């Protein structure tokens, strides 16, 4: 009888533990992967890349093929929600903005291509409003934007451009998913280094709030790297471009925090990268879940034109 009396409490607590874990699983979601995709038109359609440099043309196709492969991976994960960070959206001076319309629609002219490429997506206005509310309560600099109508009720779609359209265009079966867009504030142009602590903190808090949405989630960072690789480009040439891109690649292949927030930060003001703040925010998000839980992989990092482009994935172990 003594052995029975000992087994009963053990069985009781085991059942309680199972019930608790099941309840926990039902009350929280899962971030199944994070990705970095470029938004340059060369990546979208290299066949219209106007260059006689065969190496540059080959690099453009490598980036395109890598982005296609990552798009397939995202589709295979079957997310309920894609959280897309864009540096070229409709932006506030100070605050990170979520798009609150039920639909999004827009176009992107690719490099040397008359186009444009058009895309329509379902935006998760309910989850976006939840994130705005809860992140605001926690003191984060976030707000929401609704276009041509009330939040969640506007009949017209929210306008999208290349920063959203091109990365999302690589995702197959997009019609089966919803998208939440967070637009980086325009102070990123001059204050990206000063924003690093804020971005890391926002990423960590965002991680926890995303889990509470009870959805299967993919995080997608729309990002190009240094824009100063070519003296004939619109921003000229800087010696900071190459080391900046290499530091970002080192981070994306190892999750070495110093490579991103120390080394790359030394060059970003002269490298002129539109995607840097999104990368730092993503690092804060992954760090909150423990960096050991992610498998980083860089598929390509090239600059066939004046700007650098990187394709990377971070899958959960």
From TrEMBL:
One of its GO terms (molecular function) is oxidoreductase activity, acting on single donors with incorporation of molecular oxygen, incorporation of two atoms of oxygen. Keywords: Signal. Residues 55-308 form the Extradiol ring-cleavage dioxygenase class III enzyme subunit B domain. It holds the Pfam family LigB. The keyword rRNA-binding does not apply. The keyword Cytoplasm does not apply. Residues 1-25 form the signal peptide. This is Extradiol ring-cleavage dioxygenase class III enzyme subunit B domain-containing protein. It comes from Patiria miniata (Bat star).
